């Protein structure tokens, strides 16, 4: 699902808002999440998962074409951990029945 499909689905489920308003709200949510992550905050959406920043240390890598070793700089990356509810939903055959 791409952003435009998501916005269209939200506007169908919420007819009191037009698509422009839904798009504006969606953009606001995304900007807020980006700002939070940029400031080192953890984002948790219950039932979906959590996002936080993990630091990757500098390391030695190899260019596969030239076999030359290079030093890669340290960098931040977004780490996502899915919730148990989401993991169970996408793997229904792994859910234990009582």
Short structural summary:
The chain has 2 domains: 1-41, no CATH class; 42-97, Irregular (HU Protein, Chain A). 39% of the residues lie in helices and 28% in strands. It has 3 helices and 5 strands; from the N terminus they run ααβββββα.
Explain this structure to me?
It is a single chain. The chain is α+β, with helices and mostly antiparallel strands and 98 residues long. The protein has 2 domains: 41 residues, no CATH class; 56 residues, HU Protein, Chain A. The chain is built from 3 helices and 5 strands. The strands form 2 sheets. The chain has a 3-stranded antiparallel β-sheet. Strands 3-4 form a two-stranded antiparallel ribbon. A hairpin with a 6-residue loop joins strand 3 and strand 4. 0% of the residues are buried. The model has no long low-confidence stretch (mean pLDDT 94).
């Amino acid at each position: 699902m791409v952003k435009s499909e998501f916005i269209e689905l939200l506007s169908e489920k919420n007819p009191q808002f037009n698509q422009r308003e839904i798009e504006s709200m969606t953009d606001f949510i995304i900007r807020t999440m980006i700002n939070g992550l940029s400031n080192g905050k953890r984002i948790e959406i219950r039932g979906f998962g959590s996002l936080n920043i993990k630091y990757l240390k500098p390391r030695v890598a190899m260019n596969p074409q030239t076999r030359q070793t290079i030093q890669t700089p340290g960098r931040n990356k977004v780490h996502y951990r899915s919730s148990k509810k989401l993991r169970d939903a996408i793997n229904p055959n792994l859910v234990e029945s009582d």
